[in-house]
Design a protein that fits this description.
Elements: H1 7-25, H2 32-39, H3 43-46, H4 53-76, H5 81-92, H6 97-113, H7 117-143, H8 152-172, H9 179-190
Helix pairs in contact: 1-2, 1-4, 4-5, 4-6, 4-7, 5-7, 5-9, 6-7, 6-8, 7-8, 8-9
């Protein structure tokens, strides 16, 4: 009787291997042979699950974004306004070891996204959704009197740029961006 293969599990194993290699070597250090070895499969076996390296990298980035979105949902839950906005920011920022690793992987993939329209679309779609949610929570905070009235769309742009900048700093100069410092930057932007 042929052995049953869990294709989803194999895809997850390949994505996890891509994460490890991206974190250790960056996007330029990931090749299909090493990826297959890291995942425990033959190079040819990867083609049964992904069309090529580009598709694996997109899946790895989508996995980073999905993990972030799951944390946001769990942390924000039914909260609104300032509490929801701050919690959302804290899940995007590299405040812990796992989120710093995600920042390292994301930053490596941003380099690739400059020349990969599909990867750029994955990034831009996620950022647009985050900004839309941030605008909603910020407006809730203004309406509740939790933060001063402001240009919410412009302020959200500033906030998102700061969050992305915190990820870059966490990767390039990991000792310089403390948790307290990152949280203080966000609070300064929020005016609290």
């Amino acid at each position: 009787m042929p052995r049953l293969v869990d294709h989803d599990e194999r895809r997850r194993a390949i994505i996890a291997a891509a994460w490890r290699l991206l974190a250790a070597r960056g996007v330029d250090g990931v090749n299909m042979r090493d990826l297959a070895t890291e995942a425990g499969y033959t190079n040819g076996a990867l083609s049964h699950y992904f069309a090529g390296k580009d598709e694996i990298l997109r899946a790895a980035y989508e996995h980073v974004l999905d993990a972030t979105n799951e944390r946001i949902e769990a942390s924000v839950d039914r909260r609104t306004g300032l509490t929801a906005l701050r919690r959302m920011c804290h899940e995007i920022m590299p405040l812990a070891q796992d989120t710093a690793l995600e920042a390292r992987i994301a930053m490596s993939l941003w380099q690739r996204a400059m020349n990969d329209d599909a990867l750029a679309t994955v990034n831009n779609t996620a950022v647009a959704a985050w900004k839309q949610r941030m605008r909603r929570h910020w407006q809730e905070a203004v309406d509740a009197g939790e933060v001063p009235a402001t240009d919410v769309p412009g302020s959200v742009d500033l906030l998102m740029t700061t969050l992305i900048g915190a990820q870059v700093v966490a990767v390039l100069d990991p000792g310089s961006g403390s948790r307290a410092g990152q949280v203080a930057m966000v609070d300064a932007i929020l005016g609290v």
